[in-house]
Hints:
The protein is mostly helical and 437 residues long. Helices cover 35% and strands 7% of the residues. The protein has 15 helices and nine strands. The chain has helices at residues 2-6, 11-15, 22-29, 52-57, 73-84, 88-94, 102-109, 118-135, 165-180, 192-202, 235-244, 323-327, 354-361, 379-394, 403-418, and strands at 32-33, 38-41, 44-46, 99-101, 145-147, 270-274, 277-281, 305-307, 316-318. The strands form four sheets. A three-stranded antiparallel beta sheet has the order 1-2-3. Helix 3 crosses helix 11 and helix 14 crosses helix 15.
Amino acid sequence: MEKVRASGLLPLAEITYKYSNYVLVSAFVERWHPETNSFHFQFGEMSITLDNVPYLIGVPVKGLAVHAEVHGKEDCVALLRRWLGVTKRKAKAAVCCGGVTFDWLWNTFHELEDDATDYKVDYCVRAYLLYLLGTTLFVDKTGIRVNVSYLALLSDLSLVSMYGWGVEALGFLYRQLGRASRCHVKGMGGYGTLLEAWIQEHFPMFQHAMNPNYTEDLPRAAHWQSRRETKSATTVRYREMLDDVQATQVMFDPYRECRPVVADIVFYTGCICCMNVVEPYLPDRVLRQFGLMQFIPGPPLAPLRGSRGSTAATYSVVYQYTDALWQNWRDHLLHEDKRVPVRAGVPWESHNDYLLWFRTVSHLRVSPNRGDGQFIQSAKEQNAAALAVLDTFLGGRTISTAACDMWTTILQVYKTLSGVEGGHPTTPTNPAPTSSS
Length: 437
């Protein structure tokens, strides 16, 4: 147990949800865009980020690059023999499709004699950690086996805690979401607890009951109780709720009160890796999740090659990546000019041109026969935006809004507060405050 705790992965065993809300997950998967690795809504994009992972599941994103080659059967047999201490015959019988089943790991290693040697203890620790990784961070669609190649990363138990497991888990989940978003796909891999906890953190209307045993030293995924989906929950209902969700109903930055500043590493821009899977990570598309104003993002990363194929299994996209890219993440940060804090009370704030641009590159709604329609801000959003402009105007600071729009907004706020009707004054050419006003 001491060696398992030293790995830093034990919290995964304590927070993983027993049940999964497949209907809710399906509604979000429909909104996933693999090119941008983000969910698309009426108000813009959102995604699971490197900022979410440590808070939600308690595994680090900083550390050594978690990268290993995917091995063939003979190499897998060699890994089992060397790092789990099984015979060649047993290893050959156990390996299938590059992995071993959880049942085999359990039956082979769940008991340890009191007089076991240090070697046998290490074999059991590696077997347990392999089991843990396969049932949490790297769940494949079969749900019954784990890739043997991860053993290469568990060979030196003293290094396990030094890996950035959260980065690989995020890259793996990105690829699984990309495959699941394809037509006719009925299952999905990846760490479901990370995805569902992210949904509950950012979308309060989908929150489960709180866990009464939650304490602040636990990862935030443990904040919510695991529960089965209710009979009234349908994909159609959730789909329509997400079609109509307003920015004011979303918690863009749920960690604002518990961290002084956003860690620089979450602004890394480039590719992240999981074994032989490489996925783009683009924080400039979801700046509001870091408490920043959303600007029009840059274009998605162009892959080296890609093939959609006829089935999800043949979906293949290859991006340029080297371990040095991630190890030198400080050289690939989003420029500070793009990190403009949102104004107080306007967490959904975006640049004037952002929503106009977004409506030209995305679909606002998923439900059939509803169309994209017209994006309409809620009254709360409109009021907050109007008051923010008025506050800027009265404060004498530089106005970035067009003069005519600013004047119209100030007039409307004045009429709303004073109850004045009619009396439209002529729009001035320069509506800056005068000494008399």
